[in-house]
Amino acid sequence: MLYSNINDRQQGIALLGAMVVALMLSLLGATLLNLAGQETVSAGLASQSVVAQQLADAAGELVVAWFHNPETTAGVSQLSSLHEKRNRDKDGAPSFFDASGRSQFVGTAEQPDVRLQTGNPSDNRLLNDSETGVFRTLTHLGLVEELKIYAPSKPGLLCTIDATVATNANPPVRQSILMQLGALELPPLRAAVQVGRHLGRFQPGSESPVSAHWGDLRVGGDLVLTQADEIPLRSELAPVTGQAYDEMAKPEDRWMEGWIGGTIQVTQASAGQTPSFPSNLRMAQNPIPGVRLDQWPYEDIKRVAKRFGRYFAIDRAGLLYPQGFVEPGHGISADEVFRSQGSDDQLGLIFIDTLDQTAPRPDNLGVVKLQVPYFEGMAIVQGHVVLAPPSGGGQSIRVLSPPPTDQGKDVVRMPVQLADIHFNGVLHAGGDITVAGRVRLYGAVAAGGTITSAGSGGRLEVWYDHDFSQGLYRGLPVVYGAPGTWMTRY
What we know:
By secondary structure, the protein is of the alpha/beta class. The protein contains 4 helices and 30 strands. It folds into 2 domains: 46-186 and 478-488, no CATH class; 193-470, no CATH class.
C-alpha cells in the first residue's frame, strides 16, 4: 500500500512536469511566431523605406533634369521658366545670379518660389498624372505629394529642392528630402568667331579663311579679305539654310555683324576704286569703343574641366596625357581623344593644358592636330590647333537657327539641316588655329591669336549656336547637386 502511494505521487509529479514543459514550449512557440510576424512587418517596412528612398532620389534627379531639358516642362507655367537666366552678371551676361552673386530664387520654405501639392487637384494632375504628369515615370513606385523650390541656405548656391514622396504601399511610407543645387556659370560665347589679333595677312593666299553665319565676327586687329563682297549683307529676308556663302548668288545673312578693331584690307580690289563694305561691318573699333571679346580665364576653365570634363597634359610631340601626368611611352594621340562615333556621341569638355601646365605664354604652347572626321563637344586647347579633317568626313545634323532679331515677334527658331559638319560645339584655342582643307563647324570658335589657312583651299565655315549666348553648353551640367547638402527630414 505504501509502495502504491509513492508510485502515484511520482506519476503525478511527472505529469505536472510534463504539463509545465508543454506550457513553456507553447509560450516559446507563440513568442517565436510573434517575433517572426514582427520580423516580417519590419522587413516589409524596410523594403518600403528603400522604395521611398529611391522615389525621393529619382524625384530630385528629375528636377535637376528640368534645367537641362526645358522641353520636359514646356507648357507648365509654374515650371517652364525654371531654366531661364533672369539676371545679368557684372559683365552683362545672362546669369542665375545678380551682380552681387544673389540667386534669382529668393523664396522661403513657408513661401517658396514654386509650390505644388497633391491636395490641389490641378497640382496633383501636374505632378502625378500617368500620361501627362511631370513625375509620370515614377508612378510605379509612388507619388510626389509636395514639391517646393526656394532660395538656398548657403551663399553661392542656386536653390533648395524640397520634396515629399509616398510609396504605393498600404499604408504608404513617406519620406521628405532636401537638397541644394549649384549652377555652373561658364561665360557665354556671344559671337560665331572671335580672334584676338589680325585675321588674315595682306598677301594672296593668306587672306582671312573664315566665314561666319548666324552670329558675329569679332576681330581684335585688322581684317584682310580677298574681295570686298565676301562679307554677307545683313537682311531679314536672307534664306536660313546650310549653304556656304560661295554657294549663294549673293551672300546674305539675318544675324551676321562684323566688329573689327583696326582696318579692313582687300587684296584683289579694283584699281582706282575704294572698296565698299556693307553697313553691318564696323571697323576701327579699338581702342574706343573696343571690340568685346569674351574672356575665359585660364584657371577658371581648368578647374571646371577637372571637375566636370576631361583634363590632359601635352608634350612637344602633340601626345596627350590624362589627368596631367606626363609619362614617357604613355601618351595618346589627339585622334583617340577627339573622335566622336557619330551624331549625338557627345564627348563633353576636353581641356588640353600648356606644355608646363601654367597660364598660356608664347613659349609654352603645344600643338593639337584635329584630323578626326567628326567631333562633338567642347575643345579647350591652351595652345595652337590645326584643323585637318579628312575629305568626305562630317555628319549631317539637325539644328535650330537663332531667334528672330526683332524681339517684338514670337520667338521662333527655325529647324535647319546642316550637312558635312566636322565640328559640333566649341573650339577655343589659346594660340592660333590653322585650317587645312574645307572645314564646316556648328557652334563657336575663339582664338587668342588668329586663324590662318594652311593653303589656298583652307576654309572655315561657322554656323553659330545661339544657346552659347546664354552660357548653355551641351556636355556640361547647367546645375548639379551641391556636395554635402542632401538630407532626409523623415
